[in-house]
Amino acid sequence: MNDKEAGLAYWRANINLVKISLVIWALCSFGFAILLRPMLSGIAVGGTDLGFWFAQQGSILVFLALIFIYAVRMNTLDRKFGVHED
């Protein structure tokens, strides 16, 4: 694999990771907290319903988890393509 093909494969993998992260974030913050809130209202979590929990805390926790997972996956991807920083 030459440098140009490796660069394209690296960015393709990076963009796919970003797309997956954005879909998960949108599903949790917009889908569960807003669109699916009426369906989740009967499930109790921490003294409130699950839809409210996703709107107030769940989407923030998912966002923080996505940041951590993205950093770990990008470090792995950087090492795979030889562009890591030590």
TrEMBL record:
Keywords, alphabetical: Membrane, Transmembrane, Transmembrane helix
A Pfam family the protein falls into: DUF4212
Sequence ranges assigned to domain Sodium symporter small subunit in this UniProt record: 9-84
Keyword Membrane in record: yes
Domain of life: Bacteria
Sequence intervals crossing the membrane: 20-40, 52-72
Matching NCBIfam families: Na_symport_sm
Name this protein carries in UniProt: DUF4212 domain-containing protein
